[in-house]
Structure to design on (187 residues):
């Protein structure tokens, strides 16, 4: 639910704001102090943050290793982004630090998950997880370059969010890497 609410919030808020460019402008601008879309975008951040924390706690029970920590860190950083809006009480630097830490956590998440996937012999999941993490990292790093940082931000986050949704569905239905080869759930 978290990634879906987050993407819906920035897609709808961005589409209804005439001067906003999803290619040029950061998602956080939609939740900035004084933005007409501040309330729905902040709500999107909060639902996303709480959803990632819940996902992390579920991963902790189902997957050995430290991927769960990256999911909880991503969620926590997202809540910090919501609590420190651009133009707000904390200044933009605190907001930027929370966002950067969240970016680091979200790209590490699928890479960390690839390790236990490998020990379970799930080569397809390993490859998809590592490619997602690396590609998302490159996209999010590109946000520091040129005028299209909004586009790179959306590409990187959407890739990572897609991995999260697919993994959450597999976890909830006990499929993919969460099922032993013989069809029994993993422990």
């Amino acid at each position: 639910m978290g990634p879906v609410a987050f993407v819906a919030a920035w897609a709808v808020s961005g589409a209804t704001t005439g001067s906003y460019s999803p290619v040029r402008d950061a998602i956080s601008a939609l939740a900035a102090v004084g933005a007409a879309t501040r309330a729905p975008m902040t709500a999107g951040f909060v639902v996303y943050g709480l959803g990632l924390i819940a996902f992390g706690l579920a991963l902790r029970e189902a997957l050995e290793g430290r991927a769960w920590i990256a999911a909880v860190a991503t969620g926590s950083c997202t809540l910090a982004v919501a609590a420190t809006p651009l133009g707000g009480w904390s200044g933009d630097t605190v907001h930027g630090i929370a966002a950067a830490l969240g970016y680091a956590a979200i790209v590490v998440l699928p890479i960390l998950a690839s390790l236990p996937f490998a020990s379970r012999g799930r080569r397809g999941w390993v490859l998809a997880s590592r490619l997602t993490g690396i590609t998302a990292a490159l996209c999010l790093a590109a946000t520091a370059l040129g005028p299209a940082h909004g586009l790179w931000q959306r590409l990187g986050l959407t890739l990572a969010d897609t991995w999260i949704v697919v993994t959450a569905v597999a976890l909830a239905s006990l499929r993919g890497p969460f099922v032993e080869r013989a069809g029994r759930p993993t422990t």
About this structure: The radius of gyration is 17 Å. The helical segments are 2-15, 38-62, 67-83, 92-119, 123-141, 149-172. The mean pLDDT is 93.
